[in-house]
Amino acid sequence: MKIEHIGIAVKHLAKSNSLFELLLGQAPYKIEVVDSEKVSTSFFQTGDTKIELLEATDKDSPIAKFIEKRGEGIHHIAFEVADIYSAMQEMKEKGFQLLGDAPRKGADNKLVCFIHPKSANGVLVELCQTIEP
Ligand code: ZN
After folding, report:
1. Whole-prediction pTM value?
2. For residue 77, how far is its CA from the centre of ligand 1 (angstroms)?
C-alpha cells in the first residue's frame, strides 16, 4: 500500500498553514471543512504524497481530544486502497479493529475508514479510496 498522506493535528490551521508553507515552499492546494468529522483541513502536495493538517472545529472533535491528550503532532498515516470495502474486510480478517462498520466521506474527495491505534502499535491508520468524479 502506498502512503497517500500523513495527517497532522494542529491547534491553529491558519498559523500552521503559514508554517508549513514556509517549510515546504508552497501553499496548500486545498482547504476544506469536513463537518461530519468536525475538522478544518488543508492539504500540501509533497511529491507523490500529501500532508494533511487538521484543526478541530468543535471541542467534541476527535482532533480536539487528540490534542488535549497528546498535544499537536502526527495524528494518522493514510494508505491508499483501490477498493475500501474489500480492504476493510481484509483488515478485519487479519484481526485489525476498525473504527466503524462502513466507510465515511472524508476530506479531499475520499472514502475513508480508520484502524484503531490499539490494534496497530499505537498508530491511527486511515484507509482511503479516491471517489471517482
Ligand atoms: Zn487523513
Report:
1. 0.94
2. 7
Residues belonging to the chain: 133
Between the two ends of the chain, the Cα-to-Cα distance in Å is: 22
Cα 76 to ligand 1 centroid, rounded to whole Å: 7
Residue 13 CA to ligand 1 centre (angstroms)? 15
Residue with cell 503559514: 18
Q: What DSSP assignment string belongs to 55-96? A: EESSTTSHHHHHHHHH-SEEEEEEEE-S-HHHHHHHHHHTTP
Q: Element (H or E) spanning 102, and its range?
A: strand 98-106
Distance from Cα 94 to the centre of ligand 1, integer Å: 22
* Residues 10-63 pLDDT 10s: 999 999 999 999 999 999 999 999 998 899 999 999 999 999 999 999 999 999
For residue 75, the CA-to-ligand 1 centroid distance in Å is 9
